[in-house]
Amino acid sequence: MGALLFLMLVLVTMVSIAIYRFWTCINQLGQSKELMRLAPNMAALDGVTIFAALSTLYFAALGWGFDLPLFFHDEPLADWQNLFMALACCFTCIGLSLKNAGRRFEHGPSWGGMRESAVRTLVAFRILDAVDVSRAMKESELVIEANTLEVRK
C-alpha cells in the first residue's frame, strides 16, 4: 500500500510542478492578468487541481499513520478508506489537469518547455480574440476595405 501511495504522490507532484512552472512563466512574461481575462476558468481549475493534489498528500499521510485531524469524522479511517480517498483525489488531479491543460504540458515539465507552452497559450488566445473581433465587425457591417486605407512607408 505504501508503494501505491508513493506512486500517487509522484504523479500529483509532477502535475503540480508543471502547473507552478506554467504560471511562473506567465508571470515572468507579465501577462497573467491578460490570460486570466481571456481564460478565467484556467486559473480556477488549476487551483482545484492543486487542491486535489494536496488532498492526495493528506490522505496518503493518513494512510502512512500520521496523526492528522479529520474534519468530518470522529474516528480514524481504515487503511482501505485512506487508500481509496487518495486514489480518488489522485485521479481527480490528473483528470482535471488533462481536461484543463489541453496542450500546455506536452513539451515536458522543463523550464524551456513551460516557457514555450506559456507563449503558445498566450498566442492562441490572442488569435481567438482577433477572430472574435473580426467576426463581430463583419456581422455589424463595419468591414474596412483595403482600398480605402492609406498606407505609408
Automatic annotation (TrEMBL):
The keyword Transmembrane helix applies. Keywords: Membrane, Transmembrane, Transmembrane helix. The chain crosses the membrane at residues 6-26, 38-60, 80-98. This is Uncharacterized protein.
